[in-house]
């Protein structure tokens, strides 16, 4: 699943007329970068959630045949359901097995190959903390993620989930983090530390930086301040 329903407030004015996933970097819409990586990893059925200007995303991508994919759309209407609510709304399209969820507004060289998550409810890909988020999100130790004190890493926007994580959640909008923290208490969240390239394309400046790096082939120099989440 690719999360593509957000308004993209930090990208204004670019997103006043174009949904954020269709903004281009290196001549390609952000969401297509994700689709190419998913196709290379062997995925064929991709769910995309839609809300703000979702009709434009659907029109641009179609059924995915041109990319060798089968695209399915989870329409959330005029109001996005946040990450947790958006995933829950899409569960009928995602099936009963663990599934991958990726943010549409990141660029990352993680291979996206599904791990064996065992009995865990989720497996999160973590990255180094950016200056804008120095406290991080969660603690990772020996492949386990918790909310304990100690050094933390930042959630990359790449995660694998079991449908059971959302089993008792209500319809409507709700965030993902509280569900994860509840599962952490039950010791059912695993994770990994990705040391490769990760860009959170959160502002027009970062979009421009990513665009330049993709066009010049400098994308894997991820020491830039642009390789950070805002």
From TrEMBL:
The keyword Transferase applies. Pfam families: NTP_transferase. Residues 1-112 form the Nucleotidyl transferase domain. Transmembrane segments: none annotated. Keywords: Nucleotidyltransferase, Transferase. It comes from the Bacteria. InterPro entries: GlmU-like, MurU, NTP_transferase_dom, Nucleotide-diphossugar_trans. GO terms for molecular function: nucleotidyltransferase activity. This is Mannose-1-phosphate guanylyltransferase. It comes from Acidihalobacter yilgarnensis.
